[in-house]
Write a structure and sequence with these properties.
29% helix; Rossmann fold; Aspartate Aminotransferase, domain 1; globular; 11 helices; alpha/beta; 14% strand; 394 residues; three-stranded antiparallel sheet
Length: 394
């Protein structure tokens, strides 16, 4: 009976996906009739990057042609064109195509200052997210919303579908482990669009934000949609396969293993020189968007996920357990901070707490690990439900 139910669920999901495929999913930026009137005779700032496309034309170029007065551009990690390395501090500048001033919000500061917003009336946010807590664009969104509230500016979020928006999974972040790769008490995969997430963190009083900010919704999207796109949202998420694996394999960033940076399959190639019994190997090397990282120039043995489908609706904790068990030097598996404090381990910042590390060390089963997540997930889902703008997956 269990197998029959599982088959039926896949059949239903496939039928829904097929029906969705006949309707083109359009991000909020396409619903111009809803927000262009709000920009008339206004000085506009846009927080964006290379993913804010309307077909083959960028939002910036589209609005300039429509006569919108774009005063300045704010950019997140990886910069306006999405080519800077992960963690690389980006600089202010000028967009060569439009001559508009660019202010980096991933360098000297994370949010707009009072001076940045003195000559701005309306703030727009439009970036493609991938739906994981440690992907830094939602941290940038938080600072942007807070700045709009502090400096009393109008705020518009142009919503975009979440490619991992069809499920919720993973441990809840403990605020003691909050950082730019995770600031709010949410699970690893939170199943919300960027607009829904913004509404939640303001609505729950987690941050101060404009009470009446606008979210311009997507068309033909819901939380059962398997939304795909062709523009890499950041240099090391080159394709949809990497995006689907990312909720699982980003945890490897907190270990001494390579997560595939410096290859064409970041977050799908995983390995280390000391792994034994694996025929697959790769050699990471400098490339655009990954000029420096772990184990460059060394032959790493391990796992090739580039042609393997990620689990449809869960983090593959079994894979993380397998990798941990295969690594011979258990006491050096996790990158150890100088302080030695649990809160400073990057693995714990990614996981959101120290529990997962300890569970792996103590040999807990996958079922036991998943069971430990459930109380937090149940509580989060109740909160999440209040802010969902599209038909949900459950």
């Amino acid at each position: 009976m269990k197998r029959i139910c599982l088959v039926l669920s896949f059949v239903i999901a496939f039928a829904h996906a097929k029906a969705q495929s006949t309707q083109l999913i359009l991000p909020g930026a396409f619903q111009m009739e809803q927000y262009l009137p709000l920009l008339e005779n206004k000085r506009v700032a846009i927080f964006t990057n290379h993913t804010a496309m309307l077909g083959k034309v960028h939002l910036i170029d589209t609005l300039v042609k429509r006569g919108v007065h774009i005063q300045k551009l704010f950019t997140p990690e990886h910069g306006l064109r999405g080519t800077a390395d992960a963690g690389e501090k980006t600089k202010d500048g000028v967009d060569p195509q439009t001559g508009i001033q660019i202010i980096s919000l991933y360098g000297k500061k994370y949010g707009p200052s009072k001076e940045d917003l003195e000559d701005v009336d309306v703030m727009i946010f439009d970036i493609q997210d991938v739906g994981t807590r440690f992907y830094t664009y939602i941290s940038s969104l938080q600072y942007y919303i807070e700045a709009a509230a502090t400096h009393q500016k109008e705020l518009i979020i142009l919503d975009r579908p979440n490619p991992n928006g069809h499920y919720v999974d993973g441990p809840i972040l403990d605020k003691a482990y909050a950082s730019f790769v995770g600031k709010m008490p949410i699970p690893t995969v939170y199943g919300m669009t960027i607009g829904e997430y913004g509404k939640m963190i303001v609505g729950e009083g987690w941050i101060q934000g404009p009470k009446d900010f606008k979210v311009i919704g997507c068309k033909n999207y819901d939380h059962q949609s398997m939304y795909t796109f062709t523009i890499a949202p950041s240099p090391n998420l080159p394709n949809m396969n990497s995006i689907y694996w990312y909720p699982t394999t980003c945890l490897i960033e907190g270990t001494v293993l390579s997560e595939g940076r410096g290859t064409a399959h970041a977050f799908a190639y995983l390995g280390h020189p000391s792994i034994q019994g694996k025929q697959f190997s790769f050699i990471p090397a400098p490339r655009q968007g990954a000029m420096s990282s772990k184990l460059y120039g060394q032959t790493c043995y391990g796992w090739d996920l580039s042609n393997q489908q990620a689990p449809h609706n869960k983090i593959d904790i079994e894979l993380i357990m397998e990798i941990y068990k295969a690594f011979p030097q258990k006491d050096s598996f996790f990158i150890r901070p100088t302080s030695g404090l649990a809160t400073d381990f990057f693995f714990n910042k990614l996981a959101g707490n120290a529990n997962l590390m300890e569970q792996l060390k103590s040999g807990k089963t996958a079922a036991e690990i998943r069971a430990s997540w459930q109380p937090g997930l149940i509580a989060f889902k109740k909160i999440r439900k209040k802010y969902i703008l599209y038909k949900d997956f459950e």
